[in-house]
Amino acid sequence: MRTLDTLRSVVRFHPIETDVRRPRLRRVASVADLRRIARRRLPHGVFDYIDGGAEDELTLYRNHSSFQRAEFRPRILRDVGTIDTSTTLLGRTIPVPLILAPTGFTRIASPGGELDVARAAARAGIPYTLSTLSTRSIEQVAGVSSGPKWFQVYVWKDRGMVRDMIVRASIAGYEAIVLTVDTAVLGRRERDVRSGFTLPPTIGVETFFDGLIHPRWTWEFLRAEPITFANIVGKGVSGGGRITDLADYVNSQFDCSLSWQDLDWFRSVWDGPLVLKGVQTVEDAQLAADAGIEAIAVSNHGGRQLDGAPPTLELVAPIVDAVGDRLEVICDGGIRRGSDIVKAVALGARACMAGRAYLYGLGAGGEQGVDLALSLIGDGVRRTMALTGSTTTSDLRADLIQWRPS
Length: 406
Description:
This protein is an alpha/beta fold. The chain has a single domain, classed as TIM Barrel, CATH 3.20.20. About 45% of the residues lie in helices and about 10% in strands. Strands 4-11-10-9-8-7-6-5 form an 8-stranded parallel β-sheet. Strands 1-12 form a two-stranded antiparallel ribbon. The protein has a two-stranded antiparallel sheet with strand order 2-3. Strand 5, helix 7 and strand 6 form a beta-alpha-beta unit.
């Protein structure tokens, strides 16, 4: 009888789950765990499109490793009974210094795509940035999200179409325009070249066996409606509904003549905050400030454009020192943990952008996976602040960080 009582006290069974995602996510402890699950669930070409960078992927690696070089100098006996992780960004208070970065063709990770991500971001109270190259439209995303939304703009040669998208974003309640400025041409993403990756993904002779060993993704992909660039379908721009090589598409459609003088045109069609995404030098940050830009995202496109570009975390302090009193600085690239955000904010960033982190969650478990990724990062910010003796984000200063030699 005693043995039976002991057995009853220690045996625990999880309730039977009808949703297969819950058991899959139950033991996830980090964004790295979500990445491993996504790698297992997604076809190789799809995962490499999400995970990969340009050429030798040096910048991709250094974006992440720079956070490992930045060490904390934790302070003790600081009364961390109450932690406030909130900050203000472009006049709005957000609960954690995080913005979800724009990512194109999000539905390749999971059928819900941008709608799943937007709903998760709204629940977390953080801004979601919709890409021009999204697979759900400006209006569709606005229809499922009452949270803060930004719209990212690639500049087509057809400025009328760009104006149309900006006007649509304004009508739909998007709060900021994010102008990406580091895609005069597309970087050479060699993983995609090797896999023959196209948008949307194809299932043919070359990818047939990859589809067989990822049956759930393949079944969901085949059952879902066709994937298109939802914001430009029917706008007279090629590529809206056909299979395309992304590099050829970008190089033929995007306006490589974009310059500082064009900012006046954007001001003429948009009266809200303008964020420049892709700033990588102090000199360009100063030009952005001189132009009256409200915020810049210090970004190398997640290591997907110019390989050999500097890791973004190492640019934050010098850029903030130069222009931090004139505009807000966002750090984009390499964010995997809440502690990464704390490091960037301590060095002067107002907030961070993350893209792959939530895509891993989306690929691992759909909308629930995105919720989990955001929860892990937010909890990490709170825990790290407590362990470093910081009770508010304004407590996070440069003297909290020291750099380990390379």
